[in-house]
Amino acid sequence: MPQDIRTSRDHGRVQISCLVSDIRLEWRLAEDNGGTRISVAVDIPEEEAHRLERQREVASASLRNLAEPARA
User: Fold this and answer.
1) Which DSSP state fits 20?
2) Which among 59, 66, 20 is positioned nearest to 42, based on CA atoms?
3) Which of 10, 37, 42, 54 could form a disulfide with 32 if both were Cys (CB 3.0 to 4.6 A apart)?
4) Do the strands 35-43 and 24-32 form a parallel or antiparallel pair, or are they unpaired?
5) What is the CA radius of gyration of the chain?
6) What is the pLDDT of residues 12-53, one digit of tens each?
7) Is residue 40 within 8 Å of residue 49, measured between CB atoms?
8) Cα distances (Å, whole numbers) of residue 18 to 27, 32, 34, 37, 71
């Protein structure tokens, strides 16, 4: 799937936009008491609302996979 990926090192942010369906995921990393807080926001246009639950599942799985090496 074609994607536009932008990063902002200064803001600890990676933004991934789907160029087919206008779905946007924004990942943020922030220092948190000696660790790292990871968050993700998903922006889905109304016409793609039927895909929201699947996008939440994908974002949750990706978040777990991203955090796992830090736990080890």
Assistant:
1) T
2) 59
3) 37
4) antiparallel
5) 13
6) 777 777 777 777 878 888 888 888 888 888 888 898 889 888
7) no
8) 14, 30, 33, 24, 30
Pairwise CA distance, residues 9 & 59, whole Å: 21
The helix (run of H) or strand (run of E) holding residue 68 is helix 52-71
Residue 56 token pair: 């939440």
- Residue 71 corresponds to which tokens in the numbers above? 């736990």
pLDDT of 36 reads: 80
Spatial separation of the C-alpha atoms in residues 26 and 40, rounded to whole Å: 5
Indicate the pTM of the whole model. Answer: 0.60
Tokens of 52: 């929201």
